[in-house]
Amino acid sequence: DIQMTQSPSSLSASVGDRVTITCRASQSIGTYLNWYQQKPGKAPKLLIYAASSLQSGVPSRFSGSGSGTDFTLTISSLQPEDFAAYYCQQSYSTLWTFGQGTQVQIK
Amino acid sequence: EVQLVESGGGLVQPGGSLRLSCAASGFTFSSYWMSWVRQAPGKGLEWVANIKQDGSEKYYVDSVKGRFTISRDNAKNSLYLQMNSLGAEDTAVYYCARVVVVIAPYYHYYYMDVWGKGTTVTVSS
């Protein structure tokens, strides 16, 4: 199975900060990488698919990059509504896997 | 409005069975792959299973193979997850999700774009 490792597991940031979350795959997955946001008690929400394509309706402050084994999710200017957990997920293999998540907290 | 609504969760004893349902509306259900994803209390997301539009392909995470069965009824716009031999490790919120597939000559991207609110399964004596 393909293992997905996110870093950091949690971070504290202030409104307006630039935030970067990293996701590393245990083998090359091309650009078959998606990012989701989840707020407490809510279902996940798709942010980015195919490593860098912004889902319709998602603010442009979110961006994704990377290919192969290393990927990043960047929030260019953190907003109050962005404090949440973020997960990467690979769809390269028929058996999908998520990263363990990154909790973005208020500093 | 595109919507997915899960049901069927509850409290079940270890070794027991439960069948989850997911009712889809607002889109052509038979045109989409569908997924189940779960989240144990205080933990991250875990993909559980996928099913192709016509049910001809099904994939499962190793931890549920042989115990869980994903199925669908396109006439009823419904997705199911039959869960047998349940253990404490299966305690989680279970989400159903719609899968978008983008196919081109050199790639085939899959991603989950619509999610239900989830149904809670608790395995305990």
What does this structure look like?
The complex is a heterodimer of chains A (107) and B (125). By secondary structure, chain A is an all-beta fold. Chain A has strands at 4-7, 10-13, 19-25, 33-38, 45-49, 53-54, 62-67, 70-75, 85-90, 97-98, 102-106. Chain A is built from no helices and 11 strands. In chain A, strand 4 (33-38) and strand 5 (45-49) form a beta hairpin. In chain B, strands 2, 4, 5, 6, 9, 10 and 11 form a 7-stranded mixed β-sheet that branches. In chain B, a hairpin with a 6-residue loop joins strand 5 (45-51) and strand 6. The model of chain B has no long low-confidence stretch (mean pLDDT 97). Chain B has 125 residues and is mainly β.
The level of helicity of chain B is under 10%
Count every beta strand of chain A, where a strand is a DSSP E run of 2 or more residues. Answer: 11
Regarding quaternary structure, how should these chains be classified? heterodimer
Shape of chain B: globular
Q: Let me know the average pLDDT of chain A.
A: 97
Count of DSSP E strands of chain B?
11
Head-to-tail CA distance between termini of chain A: 36 Å
Rg of chain B, rounded, reads 14 Å
Question: What attributes does this structure have?
Answer:
heterodimer, A: about 110 residues, 7-stranded mixed sheet, 4-stranded antiparallel sheet, globular, B: about 120 residues, mainly beta, 11 strands
Topology:
The complex is a heterodimer of chains A (107) and B (125).
Chain A: E1 4-7, E2 10-13, E3 19-25, E4 33-38, E5 45-49, E6 53-54, E7 62-67, E8 70-75, E9 85-90, E10 97-98, E11 102-106
Parallel strand pairs in A: 2-11
Antiparallel strand pairs in A: 1-3, 3-8, 4-5, 4-9, 5-6, 7-8, 9-10, 9-11
Chain B: E1 3-7, E2 10-12, E3 18-25, E4 33-39, E5 45-51, E6 58-60, E7 68-73, E8 78-83, E9 92-104, E10 107-115, E11 119-123
Parallel strand pairs in B: 2-11
Antiparallel strand pairs in B: 1-3, 3-8, 4-5, 4-9, 5-6, 7-8, 9-10, 9-11
